[in-house]
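Our working data are protein records whose layout never changes between entries. An example says more than a description, so a record of this kind follows.
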Amino acid sequence: MTKPTTRAHSAVTWGLVSLALAVVAVLGGAALAPVFPGPLLKHPAPSPSAPAWLEPPSSAAPLKGATPLADSAPMPAAAALAGELDAKLGGGFGAAVLDGSTGQTLYSHAGTQAVAPASNLKLLTAAAVLTTLGPDATFRTRTVRGSAPGSVVLVAGGDVFLGNGESSPEAVVGRAGIVTLARQTAAALGPIQGQVTVQLDDTLFTGPSLNPAWASEDVTVGEIAPIDPIALNVARSQPGGTGPRPLDPAMAAASAFRDALAGALGPGVTVVDGMARGVAGGGAELASVTSAAVSDQIDYTLRESDNYAAEA
């Protein structure tokens, strides 16, 4: 990972200064109101309106992979549904369940009250990352020579936005591409013959890879996955994909690199199947690719509200 530049520190510093000045201005205006009354301090009351994309949908979205129920299917009993949901849900929340055909409300728990989405906490994560690392920080994924002849070690550097193709300079997901890394590694190895083995060094992160507070159902459907210091497409099979995520994102990325390296090496070279984890020694660096800036990754994380990107 590269260190933030002076410009990054300046941007953060001026941002905090601007915020402080804004607070002072607001408090100062309130204090001066009795002293300087008049039109200057009179403002019309704001009348905010929600953007269109926040309005409730007029119809239910089609279910992917589910067989629609017949119109004659029985409707769940509201009391029974409430008993099931109340037993499983807890804490402060707002929820509503509507029948997709009739629009009838089957369950409501503070369903008409405006509540802050849990994902608003991602704003705190974003602020912490930008303050700690700086907006211009990046992450490097590299390869080094292993201790044994013909061995290559893929060293995870914290980039979970790796793409499964060539590097794309204009992209956020895929700014650094696993295929580009493999081709550069093959070129650095030079003309070789025989077998090549690939190891994965993903020791950058320590501790449990999955927060035990996550429900197993969330892992199953792909809301989250074990947090590793390397992953493809934010732990998805394709950029913008949905559904289950790999349960070992680091190994999935390493396997993709191994396959790409096998395609990049010339005839007479065999990349051994299988993958072992290890720790990179003092071997010479072969190649590296660099992620998009942290500011770009934060922008993606907040727009997509991606749990994996936020936790990684």
Notes: Strands lie at 95-98, 105-109, 140-145, 151-155, 159-162, 194-201, 230-232, 269-271, 276-277, 285-290. The chain has two domains: 77-115, 119-311.
